[in-house]
Amino acid sequence: MPSVNELFNYVPIIERPQVSWPAGAEVAVYVGLNIEHFLIDRPSTSIWPGTADLVPDPLNYGWRDYGPRVGIWRVIEILDRRGVRASALLNSDAVHHYPQIIKAGLERNWAWLAHGRTNSALHTGMTPEEERAVLTGVVDTIAGATGRRPRGWLGPGLTETFNTPALLSELGLGYVLDWTNDDQPYHLKVPGMLSVPYTVELNDLGLFGKGVTGPEFVQIVKDQYEQLLADSAHSGRVMALALHPFVIGQPFRAKYLDQALAYLAAQPDAWLTTSDDIADHYAHAHPRCQVNPAPER
Questions:
Q1: 64, 126, 143, 266: which one has the fewest Cβ atoms less than 10 Å from its Cβ?
Q2: Helices (H), 23-127
Q3: pLDDT in tens, 89-114
């Protein structure tokens, strides 16, 4: 197991080629919409830990299950109203359980990313052969349901093995979202693979779990955009907004998502797009050879 980071180099944001987005935009903005399936007999993301280890656990399972049953349909209405095309972070198990959601996403031309099999199991503890089989199954399942192979990956719980990026590259994927350490895409050492910014900070699950209110959420979205826009005077930035339908889709929060997206959609310097398009643009505009690697130590 490596004791040093062999996946990517340290290149500070002040020492990179300038990033530009289409049509003169300064900040590329995308919505990462988590579409997840949870197992009835496994503990997972919980709103109250007191029952999290019980089987079954109606309290926490029901809280999560609100997402595909109700919450996502409220979120879809808001995305439609504001003209936002989602980057769908899709558990492959969701394909079998929620075909109506897949149909809705196809009608809206969502970008489809692989998000593991289920968010009840982290993507870890596998040999390369075992992982190759798991990833092949995930990618093939999503491709079969959506008619296109996913191009990006977000691990359940943002998890990978040391082999994940290379195995994903073998399967034709071109970027991962798991390494939430930047405001710009960057090249991994795995040929053909990028890291594209995602967020555990501007993320409804973390924010509302810490007691953030709806109005505070809207202000946080505005603050994030305003700072990234100021930073973009030097080079373009990426703003990711991570959503979970069982969180942001709750009735008392929905209007605040609508307000936040209305604000972003009205920004003249924003490129409201998908993570696929961000990765595509960056890969073409900034081939690996243009990025100076950090010196070997």
A1: 266
A2: 58-66, 72-81, 92-97, 99-107
A3: 999 999 999 999 999 999 999 999 99
